[in-house]
Write a structure and sequence with these properties.
By secondary structure, the protein is an alpha+beta fold. Among the domains are: 1-38 and 46-88 and 555-615, Multidrug efflux transporter AcrB TolC docking domain, DN and DC subdomains; 92-105 and 144-150 and 389-483, 2-Layer Sandwich (Alpha-Beta Plaits); 109-139; 178-257 and 264-322, Multidrug efflux transporter AcrB transmembrane fold (Up-down Bundle), CATH 1.20.1640; 323-350; 492-538 and 629-676, 2-Layer Sandwich (Alpha-Beta Plaits), CATH 3.30.70. Helix 7 (210-241) runs antiparallel to helix 8 and helix 7 packs parallel to helix 9 (279-304). The model is unreliable at 858-891 (pLDDT under 50).
Length: 891
């Protein structure tokens, strides 16, 4: 309810705002008179009556009839004589329209811990219900921004990728194994492992979301590994010893069970430490690691249980038997011939270089140096911004601009946006900016909803470039375009967010404004930054009221009442309310708009003195033009200025943050500092956390391998095989123009397990051969030769599963490509050079570890004596080993 006072009428009737407020408070009240005839316990009455009072007024005409003054001679002054009364709006400081239709903008935010998809689904159902039951004719609703649209599209894209990865992995396995029976066995391990992962996710309270689906896509290429190792080993055993599938499987299990367990423990150990991280990164890693670890553990169990059973039941020993000359069989035979030739060349090459320590460590040093050079040139990041199908346009008109002027700018921008072929709808808000969720007559926001990814040719960045070019034709405003934050609810916009802080505690806003302006100018000169924006302004047009206390007191005017009077007439006041249509209505009292348009109108207002006279403000007050802040924002108790922006094209968020730190150090005077907001704050606080995580993972893997091999030396052969893969990951990221962000780091963590697994396959078999009497060098070469095929098979199967991620487009494409590039590049280079480096590393560290074990067994003793049952001493049993040193001769 709006009470629009008319100060000229009030002066004519000698009525003050205080009298108006008192009349409303006395007549629009809630009364409870009581009951008539209520029992007292002394006398009885047949009837009892409840006394009621209509209560507070809730209609304009009732307020119009409120009596302000009445005289004995019958003169009555009503509220309608000095004011207009109407049902209106609580606020008139925001204009909103959607596609040029008047609208009311509503922003809904989910509570912590709730599921976005479920919340939005329920909201949509409620909106449909309200539309059917409550909307008047020709009123509609439209959702301008729905975060679930991007999430659903991204999840759907990943599900398609999941299917494509499954098919590609099965195809690679078929090419290497050569028949559908063998392909079926590791392929069946995928759904079993994924179902088991779903059970683990349910147990840990993890939902199916973008992060866990990423993990499942990557898991497809990993969970087949153990099954492939078993199937390939059974085939090799059937071919070499001409055994039945059952007997071959039984022997293989005795040989490779240790390797399967070691691989499973190794891969699981990689993901255990990262599951305990905290913060937003911890949420990401925790969901990813639990999903991956659970699927890997189950795949290990499947490899030791289901896979052997299937091998014994399904496989056939067709080795050496003629096959039908179908196109597929001819291709498989050609592939096997080529691969056998490659294996022979590989074995001969290993015999030449495996014992050359200088060459082995030279390659390691070269890869480590390449890692340092590549990381220095590779941009860093946190969580990459994606094409979410939404753009925010922030509008800033000069300080002191009216809401109507800002709304006119917003409408012009709206018309420009609607002409763009990639835009679906535009919602314009004048008086509100989404960046800091602040209000002001010179602030505005346009929510630009883009067409579906399949319906537009431009990316979100291309649309922004087009709109920026067109928006420059709008004079009298600063307009910047931003994407939504990478993580909904974490910050208001994409890019970076920070606060400039005044820690001088002087309260000199003018000086702070000068520092803020100089800082912004310095930032704008840097090519790494774009879209810099701040709403801080210390030059907002103001008028300072100068009260002549002596003149006021002489005229009987109370300064307090004079300020209260202005507060009501100019600023409005809310005193009471009522309920109507089931809704609470507030009652606001304020002077009509035409009495408070210009500064000169202020001097024509009146206040009642203590002699019941109306005194003009011009009699005791002057106004002086000045400048100041429209609003004071504080951050951690300091006066602050919110600054937003984005990295320029070709630069990452990490580079932008480094540049801002550098500019702040160079330009900010003593007593001023910066602090970060949203994802930028977490990125800054995270610092070298990824390096520490990587080192912890390496340490965890090392301890697991040390326990497995009962040696602190042999695990180094596995750990030192990783630099080639790490360099490959960084190299492909650089070639594809991607950043070293959280997705890339997830890929690196996973590479530790995958490349470590390849090394374990060689080292484990080499240890077995060494125990059978081969030299360390021969054992290393034999282990690499035997495991060459399964290593390439599992590695290329994993890489094949990543191909859909590498070429991803549409929603979530940047994250897909980043994790795909990190994993595929590292796996490719790590596998190619790993099969060369690992035998050399085992030769070095296996020689050092020879005869050194953490737990000594009796049979390891080189000289023992045996006694017969008759107590006679037998001849000593002497254990002799061949030496690996060619110069020492043979014994």
């Amino acid at each position: 309810m709006r009470i629009w006072l008319k100060p000229d009428r009030m002066r004519a009737y000698n009525v003050s705002t205080e009298e108006v407020m008192e009349a409303m408070a006395e007549q629009s009240i809630i009364g409870s008179p009581g009951r008539l005839g209520q029992s007292t316990g002394k006398r009885s009455q047949s009837l009892e009556y409840v006394l009621t009072y209509p209560g507070r007024y809730n209609k304009p005409e009732q307020y119009e009839d409120i009596i302000i003054r009445a005289t004995p001679n019958g003169e009555i002054l009503h509220l309608k004589d000095v004011a207009e009364v109407e049902l209106g709006s609580e606020f008139y400081d925001i204009y909103s329209n959607l596609d040029n239709h008047p609208s009311a903008a509503i922003v809904l935010k989910q509570t912590y811990g709730s599921n976005a998809t479920e919340v939005i689904k329920e909201v949509k159902e409620k909106l449909e219900e309200i539309k059917k039951t409550s909307f008047p004719p020709e009123m509609e609703y439209q959702i301008s921004y729905d975060v679930s649209t991007f999430l659903d599209a991204s999840i759907e894209k990943v599900i398609h990728t999941l299917t494509e990865a499954f098919i590609l992995v099965a195809l690679v396995v078929f090419i290497f194994l050569g028949d559908w029976r063998s392909t079926l066995i590791p392929t069946l391990a995928v759904p079993v492992s994924l179902v088991g992962a779903f059970m683990a996710m349910k147990f840990f309270g993890i939902t199916i979301n973008l992060i866990t689906l990423f993990a499942l896509v990557l898991a497809i290429g990993i969970v087949v590994d153990n099954a492939i190792v078993v199937v390939e080993a059974v085939h090799a055993k059937m071919e070499e010893e001409h055994l039945s599938p059952y007997k071959a499987t039984k022997q293989v299990l005795n040989e490779i069970s240790g390797a399967i367990i070691a691989i499973t423990l190794l891969m699981t150990a990689v993901f255990v430490p990262v599951a305990f991280m905290s913060g937003p990164v911890g949420v990401f890693y925790r969901q990813f690691s639990i999903t991956m670890a659970s699927s890997i553990v189950i795949s290990g169990i499947v490899a030791l249980t289901l896979t052997p059973v299937l091998c014994a039941m399904i496989l056939k020993n067709n080795h050496g038997k003629p096959r039908k000359k179908t196109p597929i069989n001819l291709f498989i035979d050609w592939f096997n011939n080529k691969f056998n030739g490659l294996l022979g060349s590989y074995t001969r090459f290993l015999k030449l270089i495996a014992h050359r320590r200088v060459l082995t460590f030279g390659m390691l040093i070269a890869f480590c140096a390449s890692i340092l050079l590549t990381t220095a040139a590779l941009p860093s990041g946190f969580i990459p911004g994606e094409d979410q199908g939404m753009i925010y346009a922030i509008i800033q008109t000069p300080p002191g601009s009216t809401l109507e002027r800002t709304n006119d700018i917003a409408r012009k921008l709206q018309e420009i946006c609607e002409k763009n072929e990639g835009v679906q709808s535009v919602s314009a808000l004048a008086g509100y900016e989404i960046m800091t969720e602040g209000r002001g007559s010179n602030a505005g926001t346009c929510l630009i909803n883009l067409k579906n990814w399949s319906e537009r040719k431009q990316s979100v960045h291309e649309v922004i470039e087009e709109l920026e070019k067109e928006a420059k034709t709008i004079p009298g405003a600063t307009i910047e375009f931003f994407e939504p934050p990478a993580v909904p609810g974490y910050g208001a916009t994409g890019g970076f967010s920070l606060r400039l802080l005044d820690k001088t505690n002087t309260g000199d806003y003018k000086a702070f404004g000068e520092v803020n302006t100089a800082f912004m100018e310095a930032l704008e000169k840097r090519k790494e930054l774009t879209g810099l924006f701040t709403f801080f302004a210390a030059n907002y047009p103001q008028y300072e009221l100068e009260i002549d206390n002596q003149a006021a007191m002489q005229k009987g005017v109370s300064i307090g009442k004079a300020m209260d009077n202005l507060s009501i007439l100019i600023g409005s006041t809310y005193e009471q309310g009522f309920i109507r249509f089931g809704t609470f209505f507030k009652v606001y009292v304020q002077a009509d708009a035409k009495y408070r348009e210009m500064p000169s109108d202020l001097m024509q207002l009146y206040v009642k003195n203590n002699r019941d006279e109306m005194v003009p403000y011009s009699a005791f007050m002057k106004i002086k033009k000045s400048q100041g802040m429209n609003e004071i924002t504080r951050y951690n108790m300091y006066t602050s200025s919110a600054i937003n922006g984005s990295p320029a094209s070709g630069y990452s968020s990490g580079q932008a943050i480094d540049v801002i730190k550098e500019v702040a150090k160079e330009t900010l005077p003593k007593g001023y500092d910066i602090d970060w907001l949203g994802l930028s704050k977490d990125e800054v606080q995270r610092g070298n956390e990824s390096l520490y995580i990587f080192l912890i993972v390496l340490g965890f893997v090392y301890l697991v391998l040390a326990a497995q091999y009962e040696s602190f030396i042999i695990p180094l052969a596995v750990i030192l095989s990783l630099p080639a893969g790490i360099f490959g990951a960084f190299l492909l990221l650089k070639m594809m123009g991607l950043a070293n962000d959280i997705y890339a780091q997830v890929g690196l963590v996973m590479l530790v397990g995958l490349l470590g697994k390849n090394a374990v396959l060689i080292v484990e078999f080499a240890i077995q051969k060494r125990q059978q009497g081969l030299t360390v060098l021969d054992a290393a070469i034999e282990g690499a030769k035997v495991r060459f095929r399964p290593i390439l098979m599992t590695s290329f199967a994993f890489i094949a599963g990543l191909l859909p991620l590498l070429v991803a487009t549409g929603p979530g494409a940047i994250g897909n490509r980043t994790i795909g590039a990190s994993s595929a590049g590292g796996m490719l280079l790590g596998t190619v050079f790993g099969v060369i480096v690992v035998p050399g590393l085992y030769y070095v560290f296996g020689s050092l570890a020879d005869g050194r074990k953490l737990i000594k067994k009796e049979e390891d003793t080189p000289l023992t004596e045996e006694f017969s049952h008759h107590g006679k001493k037998k001849h000593p049993k002497i254990h002799l080993d061949r030496t690996d040193d060619p110069a020492a001769g043979q014994l």
